[in-house]
Amino acid sequence: MTEKYAVVVIGGGAAGLSAALVLGRARHRTLVVDAGEPRNAPAAHMQGYLSRDGMPPAEFLALGREEIARYGVELVRDRVVEVERGEDFTVVLAGGRTVRARRLVVATGLKDELPGVAGVAERFGRDVLHCPFCHGWEVRDQPFGVLASSPAGVHQALMVSQWSKDVRFFLHTVAEEELSDEDLRRLAAAGVDVVPGEVAELVVEDDLLTGIRLADGTTHARSVLFVAPGAAPRTGLLEQLGAELHETPFGAYPVVDANGLTTVPGVWAAGNAIGFSEQVVHAASGGYRAAAAIVGDLLMTDLDAAAQV
What we know:
It is a single chain. The chain is built from 8 helices and 19 strands. The chain has helices at 14-25, 57-69, 120-123, 132-135, 153-160, 181-189, 236-240, 280-307, and strands at residues 3-10, 30-34, 74-77, 80-85, 89-93, 98-106, 110-113, 128-129, 144-147, 167-170, 192-195, 199-205, 208-214, 219-221, 224-226, 230-233, 245-248, 251-254, 267-269. It starts with a strand and ends with a helix.
């Protein structure tokens, strides 16, 4: 017979583990299915999470797994390949296992799509960075580069100028005339140098970024490069269930209420599954809110059913 759970949590990152912790403590039989692909895996440390500032992401997740196990939550390393909504949800795993659940939490996150410049992918999370709030303090006052992937890159160049006064904005494939007069005024006011020309590659010496080389051969000495990754939200399962999505500058994400409830009854979403800018602390909070809402929802459903007997 197919196993039945109160809740299946799809995704074992900060959002999924946080939801599972709350559900386990509320005495609901819960299964976490984790494909083992956390977005912040390239980073050596995570910052900005009160009491966990500087902790390696892998250590954070390992502690989370230990915590949920104390409350009887099961965790399997697998991938959900199919979900179907009926009286309960049918969840099919890549390894061949099929389970049922009364409620679902989708915490599948997203994948960063990096600019196709030689060296960027290899250095990402080390000296190629995307979030100054995550890494700005650690690289403060170093020579920064910012790689434009669109005119919107101006915002990133302005933001990182708070952590260094030596910032060069590499236009790469963006033409200078695509920048507005307001963009240019703000960049000048922030002391950001605008560098036209396509970036060809990163210069690395002794496993450290030392420069940015343009297609014309010019090299600019830089020790940090900020990039703006594109986003590939992992919404396939939500689409299978018919969840409504809305378009954002960073891709299509599910429409959710304040607790993460999607437009599909019984399905909640949390973490980077609902937005590009969700940091670890936001993801953990979102997982908590979703789980608390599910606990209340299951209780009221059961009480209403009992009252009709």
